[in-house]
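[09:14] KT: can someone run the structure on this one? pasting the chain below
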Amino acid sequence: MKNILIAILFMESTVAMAQKLGEQAVFAECKKEELPAKCTEDKIIGDITALLNADIITDIEKTIDRNFFTVSIEFISDENGKIIPSETGIMCEDNAALKAGIENYLTTLPSFIPKDMSFSERRSYTPVNIVYLRNTDNQNYHIAGYEELKTVGKHKTFGPANAPIYPGCESAVTKSEKMNCLAKGINQVILKNLVMPYIQNSGEDKMHVSLLIAIDGKVRVEEIAGSSAYFRNEVTRAVKKIPKVKPAEEKGIPVAIHLYLPITLRVK
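[09:31] RB: done, structure tokens below
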């Protein structure tokens, strides 16, 4: 008997890195990059990190009792790519100097290249969440990667207030209920459409799948790591069977998010 186990863990992204040009406001200098949204996010993170001088870090350390601190911003840009001053948010461990620096940074940013004119809603919502993790030598900090984020405690971040809605999940009320219903729907589609080849020996195979729910509600594979080429192709084929969903939203603006799926294929 073949037993397939699929575990799904969702993680909302900041700017969805695999978005195509025209789906999200981006810096003009990132227009020709392969991933213009990721390029834009990386530049914002770099600019904010440059604001962190020794005095600011020392002041932040006096107010926390953990090995990390966070900086999160959000803003909405209009149909012309200009940031709307009243639609910005900053969380930076209540550090006044850093907040003032970020506020000044946001006001001096040039206009973004807005979404493509084919979208009826051309405003863009952009959240950027950064976790700075203390180095093992306790002398400095670095930006935490995904695996490291699993080790840090709970912390506040910016992101879309309304989760994606999977077909049939319209009665779900809370964000948690909507995400659980979405997970169930995606799980069922993948289980139904995965074709397992004949495998003589028992064993276990694991892969890590990153999906993107784009602002048009389409679900697509962003990246698959691990397992064999056969199973990677099977998962990609199964994902194409997932129906279009209502995308995540913030203040009426569709927002693309990432979904992270650790998949275990266990054959007994």
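[09:33] KT: thanks! Helices lie at 36-50, 54-61, 96-108, 146-149, 175-193, 229-239.
[09:34] RB: yep, looked fine to me
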